[in-house]
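Many introductory courses stop at the sequence. We go one step further.
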Amino acid sequence: MKSGNKLFFFYFGGGALLATILLQAILERGNILWLRIAGAVLVFLSLVLWIIPLAHFKKYGSENNGKLYFEKEALITSGIFSLLRHPQYLAYMTLGAGFSLISQNFIIILTALTSIISFYFFSLNEEKLLTERFGDQYKDYSEKVPRYNLLWGIIKHLIK
């Protein structure tokens, strides 16, 4: 697969997420307060899910001879990555869902759904690449750790 094709869903999803955020600031919002509060909680959760993996990559990833911090040579399976495989993609999806609840606007819901679907397909593509790169080590990891379900990841982590 060509490099541009690998990143299509990431850039498309990122663009849709950016549109969701920008449109959220200018379009009319709904009036259901409890949905707006739930959306704000999701936005906060998304920030946490985005920041924790960044710190973890920098702390536990091996040195990579000038490559970006997330292009580490070793498979990282500790910390947040012991609970779910794609915390940052879940963060992007949660951010879109949060803004959808805050806005309660059909256009924003559509852009958020576009973003969520795009990041989902990007993560599937990334899993293929990680399986090629790390082989059985990634297959074993993916059997033990859920892709996005943080609650199930915590439960599995606690009962092992």
